[in-house]
Amino acid sequence: MTKETFTDDFTKGLKTNWTIENHTFENNLAHFSPANVVTENGELVLSLTNEKFHKKEYTAAEIRSKRAYLYGRFEARIKASDALGCITAFFLYQPAENNQEIDFEISGKSPNEITLNNWIDKTSHDKVIALDFNTTAAFHDYAIIWNPNEIKWEIDGKIVHSTTTAIPNKAMHIVFNLWATKSVNWGGNIEEATLPTKAYIDKVQFYPYIN
Questions:
Q1: 206: which strand partners?
Q2: Hey, CA dihedral for 210, 151, 153, 107, is it positive or negative?
Q3: Which residues, given as ranges, of the chain have pLDDT below 50?
Q4: SS3 (DSSP) at 192
Q5: What does the pLDDT look like over 123-161, one tens digit per residue?
Q6: Which end of the chain is more exposed for a tag (fewer CB within 10 A), N or C?
Q7: How far is CA 197 from the centre of its chain?
Q8: Integer Cα distance of 75 and 54 in angstroms
């Protein structure tokens, strides 16, 4: 766990600050492949491809910060994938403690909406927020503001939701991923002609909480 300010503009590679993941989960139609994670022109690029791998129909991409962070402001500048069936996500995660988590998730099916969530156990607290822009057409600024008693979600400098319920209390890792959901209602059916698809992260920053 660290309380130091952290910034990465993805101009110096990923080895120092990130772990590139190689796994999957039940509701994911893809397997996370290190080959689908690159940096180009100062951007992190995550790809989802029409390629069978480890019994999954597609390959996807995920990175996690090597350090864990407890409370603070987490910012990322993101342009999401516009492909049906695909989810672009920026979230905080602690797998060792009942899957504690705080999420931003963007579905290619609904680019003018964003799904927010937070967990401290197996109970979901998801919230869908309508937006006045297309999350897949350009970069936008997303921030999670997490303190011991409250979580706020901010987009382009505007608070879009807050909660004082189910607040994680363990240090969590920063995660970015692009994956293929089994939920047609949420993501839609994948159209293989649109693959490969990509999501872009321009910058990530962390500022520690000061009590």
A1: 6, 74
A2: positive
A3: none
A4: helix
A5: 999 999 999 999 999 999 999 999 999 999 999 999 999
A6: C
A7: 16
A8: 33
